[in-house]
Amino acid sequence: xxxxxxxITEINVHPLRNKKADNPLEAFVRVVLNEQFVxxxxxxxxxxxxxxxxxxREYNKKEGKGYNFCFPIxxxxxxxxxxxxxxxxxxxxxx
Length: 95
What we know:
CATH class: Alpha Beta
Helix content: 10-25%
Number of domains: 1
Shape: globular
């Protein structure tokens, strides 16, 4: 499956092992799109309402804000990427 020609061709999930109970971070993920573009530092996070995918952010300490610098801008691509990443995370976490 792809969304407007964008397809995830590779996903590498790195679940955190021996993590503290209060740490919401579950895994780091590396995604390759169309065998040509890599996105590192995607995170799987356990939130109040379950697992979600968090795309890379840059934090500005002076302003106290975070800025997404790499993220899907359409709802369909965001849903596609989130579903594929969470599916692979569940497989990796069960192993």
